[in-house]
Amino acid sequence: MSTLTKILIVLVTISSIFLCGIVVTYVALADNYKEEHDKIKTERDGLVEKNKSLTEQRNVMEAQKIDKENELNSEITRLNTEIDTLKGQLKNFEDQRKSWLQRVSDMASVVETTTQTSKETTKLMMDKEAELNKLKADQIKLIDQFEDTSTTLLEKLAVIQTLEKEKKQLIEEKVELQNRMDKLLQPTGRTPAPVVTVTQKPDEIARPAPVIAKKIGLKGQVTAVDTKNKMASISIGTADGVKEGMKFHVTRGDKFICDMLIIDTDAEEAVGALELVQEQPKPGDTVSTNL
Amino acid sequence: MSPNRRIRGGKVVPVANLYTIILGLAFCVVLATAVFVAYKCYLQYETIYFNIP
Description:
The structure holds 2 protein chains of 2 kinds. Chain A is α+β, with helices and mostly antiparallel strands. Chain A has 2 helices and 6 strands, in the order H-H-E-E-E-E-E-E. In chain A, about 60% of the residues lie in helices and about 15% in strands. The N and C termini of chain A lie far apart (about 190 Å). Chain B has one helix at about 20-45, and strands at about 5-10, 10-15. The model of chain B has no long low-confidence stretch (mean pLDDT about 80). The chains are: A alpha+beta, B mainly alpha. The interface between A and B is medium-sized, with 20 and 19 residues.
């Protein structure tokens, strides 16, 4: 064996050992690409599935979005229509509000005027009522005075009647005495001298003719009473001589109940307002023009 | 043809010397490497052949 062959054998052996070492080291340290490939492939399949499901989900969501958009568009259209309607109604309401405000201001002025008029009327009514009360008091006083005067007059008339009777008796006595004196003095041719009285004769005064008053004398019964309006109706009317403005006295037995001023008449019935109410009248109470 | 070949009874008898051992060692190393590579390939790729999937 030549030396060159020996050298080549040694070199081949060394190089083969070196290269085999490198190959072993490389193979031992090499990555498992199949495993990585499978892993990546699995991940990719998962991602593809996920992408697919997400795509389907997106399609569903897009469909829902389109439906929702359509629904919202229709809702927006409806709401716009409703807004237009409400705007029209609002305009009408504003017009009505303006007219009502105008009416309210008019009514306020009317109310103010009415209130003022009412105040004036109330004041006037109170004045008139005070005046009426005063007149009623004067009337009552005058009635009292009239009654006193009537009583006095009656007494005076009675005294006058007595005096007239006495005067008549005196005149008769005077005539009798005159006749007797004439009988006594005529045979002697004398006449009695005229009598001079101490008390002078009063001048003849024209006496007023006595007032002859005829009582009306209407009498009836209360048929109905309206307590709320202080009104009552009676059982006699124009056929019996009742006239508007007549005053009746309502009595129950000997008790004075109230007065009634006739304000409306019918043939068989009359209606009047109650005055000077002492007690509430009832149907059946007696009404008469004279107490 | 090795020059150191011996002829015994008309037959050629191979000479076993140091360089033959070295060559045998190199062969064993290469063989072990090939077996290791094949085992590793089988273990990782389930085949000992190279192919493109």
